[in-house]
Amino acid sequence: MAAQRGIPSSAVRVLEEALGMGLTEAGDARDTADAVAAEGAYYLEQVTITETSEDDYEYEEIPDDNFSIPEGEEDLAKAIQMAQEQATDTEILERKTVLPSKPAVPEVIEDFLCNFLIKMGMTRTLDCFQSEWYELIQKGVTELRTVGNVPDVYTQLMLLENENKNLKKDLKHYKQAADKAREDLLKIQKERDFHRMHHKRIVQEKNKLINDLKGLKLHYASYEPTIRVLHEKHHTLLKEKMLTSLERDKVVGQISGLQEILKNVEIGHSYHAPEMKVGRSREKENTSEGPTQRGLREAREQNKCKTKMKGNTKDSEFPIDMQPNANLNVCKENLSPAKFDYKLKNIFRLHELPVSCVSMHPHKDILVSCGEDRLWKVLGLPKGNVLLTGFGHTDWLSDCCFHPSGNKLATSSGDTTVKLWDLCKGDCILTFEGHSHAVWSCTWHSCGNFVASSSLDKTSKIWDVNSERCRCTLYGHTDSVNSIEFFPFSNTLLTSSADKTLSIWDARTGICEQSLYGHMHSINDAIFDPRGHMIASCDARGVTKLWDFRKLLPIVSIDIGPSPGNEVNFDSSGRVLAQASGNGVIHLLDLKSGEIHKLMGHESEAHTVVFSHDGEILFSGGSDGTVRTWS
């Protein structure tokens, strides 16, 4: 509890705070002591209440925010007084009272001289001055009051001199900085001029290159018609050459036949003329012939008969009146909704190396798979038991295709050959040799008399099964021909190539009738839909394109990449397109809605895919040597 003498406690507190804020920082303790003596002293007294409260109520403790009630004065009057004093103190502090500043005292003469000598470094003179000066003061010869103070002008002069020295130093520093900045500016300007000249030269070279490029484009455009005409002439000449070779072979055959007839006629005349004279000698010769000579003569006659029969084998004729496409009626009758909810059902491990192709029998539930282990196998469905295994190729197999009747199989291989197999016996009945590099694909004509093959040697060939020779070679692609297929029930061929084009050929003449452009990467496979209205193709970046075969125009392009699309195939209705992808996913495209469904199950790359006849089962082959069934 505060006891006050002659001055209110609030005024003392305000003065104390004012003095503490303005004077204690300056170190003027004497002014503070004088002010306290003038206003009166005060002291604090602590009182402790020892009596306990009569009631048992527990009071909550009031937090100490900005003020507190002194201990022992917990009555309402004291609390109100403390609040008022707090408000008064706040108002006084907000007024920002400014105390008068002390007048500046000029420097004394002796201090001035001492400071001057110290600044000049005259220590010995300073020692002599101080010893003589204080000696005079002690003797009383000199009075300090009469000496006086140093005029302000000298003090200001020294301050100005010091400031002048500092400014000169700063000026020198700034001059050096300015010189350095000037040098940097000149250097940057030179670099700017150099880069500007370099940029102008590059712009000139760019404009020159653009003009040269435009000129080359115009020059190339002027050559395109000539190149097109030369290509057409080249195809025409190839056609004429082929026709000429056919006519030559025909004429040679006729000449050889006439020569044999003439020889027989001459022999017959020689027989009839001396018939009566040499009859006995002939009998004698026959009677004198031994068994060895007789066997040699019979072997020669049999060989002559075989050679004559093979020479008389004629080339097959391409059918002119083709029967209508039976798949058109099948597509019309199949009105059931398309199936997309395939689930992995079985896994058949058939090959030690990747599976390159699977193909369905045209009439039965039989599946053929070809692998890079040089084997092809015939599977019985749905159990997947191996019915027949064929071997004879000396390198990996790339493709296989059933004969329309289903009793023969054609296979293509990396050993540059195409082989025909009898499925009843499992024997190779014919081998076509003529390609110079690996054969990628093969396909049967609907009549069953021709097989077409495509190869890495940039060509395709049409083979005659009856005459056992190549009837025609298709030239035109500039890179590997990756797939080939006959249009259903026609003489039209479709090929896809690594030169990013699709080509449509007339098998009878070997002429390319149309080329389709649009793919930006190598085309791996192309196929007709069952009705023959569309073409589906896929390339090495997973882009699948649909083409209108009647208008020869693209319909839609679907990017399922970046994994390559290895093979595409339609279901029997032509409403679902399956694609085997390089990432092991089988993509199913709904051609009606455009939706894409995915089948996950292959552990590695998927190479081939095919539907069953009713579309209820899907078969796929992968690089792990397995064939998987989805239903």
From TrEMBL:
Region (Disordered): 273-319
Chief subcellular location: cytoplasm
Record-linked InterPro entries: WD-F-box_domain-protein, WD40/YVTN_repeat-like_dom_sf, WD40_PAC1, WD40_repeat_CS, WD40_repeat_dom_sf, WD40_rpt
Residue windows of the WD repeats: 390-431, 432-473, 474-515, 516-550, 599-631
UniProt subcellular location: Cytoplasm, Cytoskeleton, Flagellum axoneme
UniProt keyword annotations, A-Z: Cell projection, Cilium, Cilium biogenesis/degradation, Coiled coil, Cytoplasm, Cytoskeleton, Flagellum, Phosphoprotein, Repeat, WD repeat
Pfam families referenced in this protein's UniProt entry, alphabetically: WD40
GO biological process: cerebrospinal fluid circulation; mucociliary clearance; sperm axoneme assembly
Compositional bias ranges of the Basic and acidic residues kind: 273-287, 295-304
Coiled coil (residue ranges): 157-191
Annotated GO CC locations: axonemal central apparatus; extracellular region; sperm flagellum
Keyword Manganese in record: no
UniProt keyword Lipid metabolism present: no
Function: Necessary for sperm flagellar function. Plays a role in motile ciliogenesis. May help to recruit STK36 to the cilium or apical surface of the cell to initiate subsequent steps of construction of the central pair apparatus of motile cilia.
Subunit-level organization: Interacts with SPAG6 and STK36.
Protein name from the UniProt record: Sperm-associated antigen 16 protein
Species in which this protein is naturally found: Papio anubis (Olive baboon)
Encoding gene per record: SPAG16
